[in-house]
From TrEMBL:
Keywords: Manganese, Metal-binding, NAD, Oxidoreductase
Annotated protein name in UniProt: D-malate dehydrogenase [decarboxylating]
Organism of this sequence: Skermanella aerolata
Transmembrane segments: none
Record SUPFAM superfamilies: Isocitrate/Isopropylmalate dehydrogenase-like
Taxonomic lineage of the native organism: Bacteria, Pseudomonadati, Pseudomonadota, Alphaproteobacteria, Rhodospirillales
Catalysed reactions listed for this entry: tartrate + NAD(+) = 2-hydroxy-3-oxosuccinate + NADH + H(+); (R)-malate + NAD(+) = pyruvate + CO2 + NADH; (2R,3S)-tartrate + NAD(+) = 2-hydroxy-3-oxosuccinate + NADH + H(+); (2R,3R)-tartrate + H(+) = (R)-glycerate + CO2
Amino acid sequence: MAKYRIAVIPGDGIGKEVMPEGIRVVDAVAARFGIEFTWDHLDWSCDRYHSAGSMMPKDGLDGIKGHDAIYLGAVGWPTVPDHVSLWELLIPIRRNFQQYVNLRPVRLFEGVPCPLAGRPDIDFWIVRENNEGEYSEIGGRLYPGTDNEMAIQENVFTRRGVDRILRYAYDLAQSRPKKHLTSATKSNGIIHTMPFWDERVKAMSEAYPEVRTDQYHIDILTAHFVRNPSRFDVVVGSNLFGDILSDLGPAVTGTIGIAPSANINPERDFPSMFEPVHGSAPDIAGKGIANPIGQIWSGAMMLDHLGHKDAGQVIVRAIEKVLTQPELLTPDMGGNATTEQLGKAIADAL
Ligand code: GGG
């Protein structure tokens, strides 16, 4: 029997509500496929920040580096500055474990109310660079409290970092029927890092002659996401652009609540991490109405990563089935179901 030890970080807000549903569904499919999961629950969160002074213990990463994967809910709460909660928890995990690929599927499911006319066929992947770029600690504040006060933030784009995310995105595009890659840029305004990004895209494209490459400035690209999302196949972007696009993509499919993500360490020398795209949603936290599908689908991506593609696909098919039943939709999809009702329905539909 395949056995896996998973570090579970429910985190904050609705992360604590959707995580039990993710575990319920993964455990249910695991039982069918003869897989055993041991879930090690960690209290790393803003609550811990208040009680113990930090989001996670100092030696926290050492404690989980031998786990097979990390299953995370959501991070952030209004009582802790967002840059503190992110830089003390999510970003150290992504960086120390070299999870440099953030893979985020965007799909319109039957049954989910879509704001776009004609319900276009939407089924593409966003590949977000996850370790460098605009998410950089290089910079500082000068002359605080004076009229000359300034904040400086450096972007970091390395050839190694850019090439490895482009290679991942091109490999993915090459494996898909449409073989189409779109690069997000802004080289007209950001005159050092973005022309460099574009140059590396051009160089990488030469190694993938079958893949059709195009590129758009991020501003018009967001417009195309809204006006014509079915044109996309694989979209690759820097850390910030990928983050923005991967909220916008699911939003045009009706709800960000269903969107999953995988923070992947492709070399597999450290655990990868699986988390919904959404955050802790303080506005609905505690009400039991959060959509658990982003968490559950992230569990399917975890199974896929661990080598159980079939088990992951069974979960996705159960999600497809349940979404066609209006009485099982949570409020973000226009229904009245609770987090638990939807999670249980997916487990029953496996
Ligand atoms: N489940 C994802 C989550 O909690 N995200 C919080 C957030 O602000 N993430 C920013 C990022 O992914 O860079």
